[in-house]
């Protein structure tokens, strides 16, 4: 069922709820669409979960906010979505910037009752430095604004699942994403440092990385190596869009994590 959420600042966000049971909230990345989770909606609803997907503001069928310049607004939107009466003790699953939204949510709402978190191919710190070589590509303080908007590489290793591709093709034509208009947002995401959050979170967390990601080294997961609540799985033969490149493997990895909660 496709529904509409009005945020506390009056914007319209489109979201979809499918199935019944434990709530899984899927969050797409920068320039993404909720349809990227098509195969996860099918898989997890067939296994007794309630699946919630949504287009973040400035994305897909949700309303455009010309003043969006902070990831904090996106985590606030997530908090408002979670306040819906049908969602209780949810598990958050985010890809790329969607994972950063989760990191920010954990930082800003550390006591929110979450059952678990899955963060897909997103370093907690995007800007590289001599002591942190695990950020986004070769982005540094000197070049991050341009580097994030135009990375100049293919996100995937061998493309994505055909069914997901077909779904995305339709919404991309209908709701084209304006990267230039969201420069301030991606710049703010890059400024964040969520390493302390991952190192200390008490929420069961799974970091899913991709062995052939064009953007990140899997070693960023070592930031939480001393936190027993954080686990790491790296998926082979996949670029950045893991859930749509290695659908079966990704779904199995997430399912195993959920069964351990």
Give a verbal description of the structure.
By secondary structure, the chain is α/β, with parallel strands linked by helices. It has a single domain, classed as 3-Layer(aba) Sandwich (Rossmann fold), CATH 3.40.50.1820. It has 9 helices and 8 strands. Strands 1-2-4-3-5-6-7-8 form an 8-stranded mixed beta sheet, sandwiched between helices. Helix 2 packs across helix 3.
| Amount of helix | 25-40%
Give the CATH architecture: 3-Layer(aba) Sandwich
Question: What is the CATH first-level class name?
Answer: Alpha Beta
Quote the beta fraction.
15-25%
Mean pLDDT: 96
**Radius of gyration from the CA trace?**
17 Å
- How many H/I helical runs? 9
Strand order of the largest sheet: 1-2-4-3-5-6-7-8
CATH topology: Rossmann fold
Beginning-to-end CA distance, first to last residue: 27 Å
SSE ordering: EEEHEHEHEHHHHEEHH
Enzyme class: hydrolase
Keywords: Hydrolase
Pfam family, one: Abhydrolase_6
Organism: Limosilactobacillus fermentum (Lactobacillus fermentum)
């Amino acid at each position: 069922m496709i529904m509409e959420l009005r945020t506390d600042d009056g914007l319209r966000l489109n979201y979809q709820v499918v199935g019944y049971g434990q709530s899984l909230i899927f969050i797409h990345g920068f320039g993404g669409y909720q349809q990227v989770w098509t195969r996860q909606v099918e898989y997890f609803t067939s296994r007794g979960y309630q699946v919630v997907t949504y287009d973040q503001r400035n994305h897909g069928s949700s309303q455009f906010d010309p003043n969006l310049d902070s990831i904090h607004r996106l985590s606030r939107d997530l908090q408002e979505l979670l306040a819906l009466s049908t969602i209780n003790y949810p598990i958050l699953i985010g890809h790329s910037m969607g994972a950063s939204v989760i990191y920010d949510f954990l930082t800003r709402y550390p006591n929110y009752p979450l059952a678990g978190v899955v963060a897909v191919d997103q370093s907690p710190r995007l800007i590289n430095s001599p002591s942190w070589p695990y950020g986004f590509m070769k982005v540094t303080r000197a070049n991050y604004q341009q580097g994030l908007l135009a990375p100049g590489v293919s996100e995937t290793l061998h493309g994505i699942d055909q069914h997901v591709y077909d779904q995305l093709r339709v919404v991309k034509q209908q709701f084209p994403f304006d990267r230039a208009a969201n420069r301030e947002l991606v710049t703010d995401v890059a400024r964040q440092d969520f390493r302390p959050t991952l190192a200390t979170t008490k929420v069961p967390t799974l970091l899913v990385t991709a062995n052939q990601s064009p953007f990140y080294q899997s070693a960023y997961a070592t930031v939480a190596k001393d936190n027993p609540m954080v686990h790491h799985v790296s998926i082979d033969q996949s670029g950045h869009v893991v859930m749509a490149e290695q659908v079966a493997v990704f779904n199995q990895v997430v399912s195993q994590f959920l069964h351990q909660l």
